[in-house]
Design goal:
Elements (H helix, E strand, L loop, with lengths): L3 E4 L8 H23 L3 H13 L7 H14 L4 H16 L11 H10 L3 E5 L4 H9 L12 E3 L9 H11 L6 E5 L2 H9 L3 E5 L12 E2 L13
Parallel strand pairs: 1-2, 1-4, 2-3, 4-5, 5-6
Helix pairs in contact: 1-3, 1-4, 2-4, 4-6, 7-8
Length: about 230
């Protein structure tokens, strides 16, 4: 019996084009001046310190760090420091009304239905926890943060690492065979299944022929009864 559902965001709850055509360009355009202006503030200084450790340059100056961040963006690297800084920049975009968090049309209703059924809902995304809260808190469907019991990012581990899903299960305090992970990427689902989770793949376009996971096109096509064993 499924007691909790953990969902990915990009390509799962939300169109990947929103991330790549709206969020990423917004942060890229503002990154350098933002860091130069706010580098001494605690919430910016902390990820910059982590970035120095990540690139193994403890004495790197601010311009070297900015260059590294642009390189990471070009590589689409899942850098925790980069994701944290992007999330801070996106905060102003959401609050200024420059954009709203995109959700597929059925997502909000199905999440609400699951919560009303007593299921615990969580998010696990490579984007920072702050970025996750901003997207769901400022979504097309309104503020959905009350639906969720918690959020996870790459601080618990990479999304294709089995240990990450064991870490999440330990933090949630629910047995892995009572957890369901939703993602559009079969390699992430492979890692979750290896940790003992149930899995379901959200496919908005063509089926994934390489996947070994149940596939559905919409959240409201997920039958939790299929994961009862």
């Amino acid at each position: 019996m499924i007691r909790a559902i953990v969902t990915d965001i990009e390509g799962t709850t939300s169109d990947i084009r929103f991330v790549h055509q709206v969020l990423f360009p917004y942060a890229r355009e503002r990154l350098a001046p933002f860091i130069r202006q706010h580098q001494a503030e605690a919430e910016v200084a902390a990820p910059l310190a982590a970035l120095r450790h990540e690139i193994d340059q403890p004495q790197a100056d601010i311009e070297q760090l900015i260059a590294a961040l642009y390189r990471f963006m070009d590589e689409d690297r899942k850098s925790t420091a980069l994701k944290a800084l992007q999330g801070i920049i996106w905060r102003s975009g959401y609050h200024n009304g420059d954009f709203r968090g995109h959700l597929y049309s059925e997502v909000a209703g199905q999440l609400s239905a699951w919560q009303q059924q007593g299921l615990k809902l969580y998010v696990y995304s490579s984007g920072s926890v702050e970025a996750q809260k901003l997207l769901f808190g400022n979504s097309d469907a309104g503020d959905l943060q009350p639906l969720f019991s918690g959020y996870f990012d790459t601080h618990v581990g990479a999304k294709r690492d089995t240990a990450s899903y064991r870490n999440i299960a330990n933090e949630i305090g629910i047995a892995t065979n009572e957890l369901l992970f939703l993602s559009d990427i079969h390699q992430e689902l492979d890692a979750a299944r290896a940790a003992g989770w149930h899995t379901c793949q959200l496919i908005r376009d063509d089926a994934d022929a390489q996947s070994r996971h149940p596939q559905v096109n919409r959240f409201d096509h997920i039958d939790l009864g299929e994961f009862a064993s």
